[in-house]
Amino acid sequence: MSGKIDIERRTDGVAVLWIDNPAHRNALNNTLIEALTAHFRALAADPSCRVVLVRGRGGIFCAGRELRDLRALQDASNDMIVATYEKLKALNEAVWFCPKPTVALIEKYAFGAGATLSSWCDVALAEETALFAYPEVHHGFPPSPALMALFLAVGRKKAMELVLTGRRIDAREADRIGLITRAVAAGAIEADLEGVLAGLLRSGPDALARTKQFVWHSDETGHRAAMTSAVDSISLGLASPQAREGIAAFFDKRLPKW
Questions:
Q1: Mean pLDDT estimate for the chain
Q2: Is the dihedral of CA 126, 21, 145, 52 positive or negative?
Q3: For a disulfide at 130, which of 44, 140, 171, 226, Cβ 3.0-4.6 Å?
């Protein structure tokens, strides 16, 4: 298998996962999917990690899935095919249920599995000329792993057009329909990224984790149950040591010590 996932540990607690597969425009193969999953799981349990950032080497985010992997699967047993897609499911779960904030920086394009990866992240910033597409139907199979995140982001009508036609859209349209957080001019994207990271790092780690836990819960329950759960969530959070520190820092006119 070609390529690798590099991990860069910044001194401020940001862990950068670099997709590095230049021979295939940073497309994901089975090995890279497993490596990303392992990194996300490890960083989720690492108290020194505050934020997980995913980006691609060489100014390209991810061209999707290496089709040679899928071609090889066509002659495999159904059990083997299912096992392979269980690994992709594990990656989606590791990203979505990571208790740390997750950020994707999209340059050039995010197609197929690349667009899916970015959509599972909490924040997605893209160069305004970057392209997004779900071309799986053009190759004869459904983009099913993308649909749950797509429905949450853009709604059914917008999602269905994207996945049924495979149409490419630029980041400006992706921003407009809610697929990404923001489209940014290429020359300003690094500064914009650092602004987002600074805001995340200023926030209490426990508060961020509790917020994400509540989002997961509210996505899976009705509004009435979520409103009840919100009382427990904020009550427990307010009594936490980090909340005491955060409020004390406000009155002391200093930065909190996370």
A1: 90
A2: negative
A3: 171
